[in-house]
Structure formats: structure tokens, C-alpha cells
Amino acid sequence: MSSYLTIGCCCDSRRAVLIYSIIFVIFEIIGLIAGAAYQSITSALIAILVVSIIIRFITIGGACMYNKWMVGLGATWEIVYVILSIVVAVRNSVNGTINWSYCNNGGCTYYNTPTWLSIIWALVWSGLILYVSLHFM
Length: 137
Fold this sequence. Notes:
Number of strands: 3
Strand content: 5-15%
Oligomer: single chain
Order of helices and strands: HHHHEEEH
Helix content: over 70%
Largest sheet: 3 strands, antiparallel
Distance between the termini: 18 Å
Number of helices: 5
Shape: globular
């Protein structure tokens, strides 16, 4: 019963891994496309997102086949991913904010996000997928 309450609307850990991994893949693909379209993405971030998408597909396959080692690979990557997310957030921050820009022919628009918010976001989402992956294993 407590597993149901902590995972939410997903009935079992396998389904939770599938749902959360698919959601992550969608967000990462959108981030990759948006970053490329706005030319605000670095080559290191592209590499991290591509590796993450590949490993998430392996995790989805592992959940479909009930293979705990494939899901374990995804859980291990999640730890690396959150560390890399924190490093990227800290490296890209200036005076405690991350500056995002969108430039087109008419000029540039700048957005500022607090660094701590980016780190908390990475920890919450990574913790969620890590929890369901470890629960599945």
C-alpha cells in the first residue's frame, strides 16, 4: 500500500518506470530540439542529452522485459545525470542566475533562472525516476 501512495497513479513499479522514462524522453527531446532551434545549447549538453535518451530507451526496454540490469543501468545513469546537471547549472550561472537567451533577426530576449531552482528541479525529477527504478529492481 505504501508503494502505491509514493509512486502515485502508477499501479506497479514496472508501469511507473515506463511512464516516468517516457515522460523524461519527451522532455529531453523537446529540450534538444528547442536548444538547437534557439542556438542556446552547448555541445556538451547535446552529448549528455543524447546519451540520456539512449539510456532511457534501454531502461524502457528493460522494464518491458522485466530485466533489472537494464533498469539498473538507467538508475546508475540517473545518478551521473543529476551530478552533470548540477555541474552544468553551476558552470553556466552568473551571480546566482542562469542566463538563457533567444536571438532572432529583431534582437535578443534574455531569461534569468535562479541556479538553486535548476538544481532543485534536477534533484526532484532525478530522485523520482531513481526511486521508481530502484523500487522496480
